[in-house]
Amino acid sequence: xxxxxxxxxxxxxxxxxxxxxxxxxxxxxxxxxxxxxxxxxxxxxxxxxxxxxxxxxxxxxxxxxxxxxxxxxxxxxxxxxxxxxxxxxxxxxxxxxxxxxxxxxxxxxxxxxxxxxxxxxxxxxxxxxxxxxxxxxxxxxxxxxxxxxxxxxxxxxxxxxxxxxxxxxxxxxxxxxxxxxxxxxxxxxxxxxxxxxxxxxxxxxxxxxxxxxxxxxxxxxxxxxxxxxxxxxxxxxxxxxxxxxxxxxxxxxxxxxxxxxxxxxxxxxxxxxxxxxxxxxxxxxxxxxxxxxxx
Length: 295
What we know:
Number of helices: 12
Order of helices and strands: HEHEHEHEHEHEHHHHEHEEH
Helix content: 40-55%
Largest sheet: 7 strands, parallel
Pfam families: adh_short_C2
CATH class of the largest domain: Alpha Beta
Family: Belongs to the short-chain dehydrogenases/reductases (SDR) family.
Protein name: SDR family oxidoreductase
């Protein structure tokens, strides 16, 4: 452990988290805090802001928190202004905020589509514009980690604008890796798929949400065994571990890359282990499953 801590060299660094109070963001905040990183973060969940800040301070970390909606340009700018007064510079930026609701494109209102773009791409552009000068102040480069999604890499019916916005974040981040490379600032992405979180649960509308809640846990376990090569979805802590790696000196020569933390779902590209086909792995079911479904 001491060997990895020395090689990672996160102790004493300073990080900004956009969306760091609950769910995946909280897991990232606590993981960075345990690694010795001081943190400034914003969120819209006041109760979670308080509990996450308290946990970080118990670790002995310096913490600045603020209620701010990252999708509101004025609130994001205010957060960064206060952060610049709290820290004289930063070493790490993690843009976690994102999300949507599953709905066919032609049924989704124009306002909702605009919100999808701002929540999953627009604010990332603004956040990086604010953060880069703070990263440059340190004089030792830094690391930016943006959250994208598996949906940015496939045709995601029901998530069209969300998928497009995340794809924009992906290519924007790669372009910024090129631009910021001479400053020693690395830009990478994490692409989750199915991860147990309140945000992912909220993305599923009724009546599917109620049907999902009615399905026994063992059914979900079997579904994940069909879909995910590693048989189970990553936890929030697995995503936090990926952030630790990309933020640390262990990844000091890695930039412009997408790290898929999804149990292998992106690698499978739709290959499923159908339950009644004696281990066949194909995008479509074979005779055994077809007989059970329709026979």
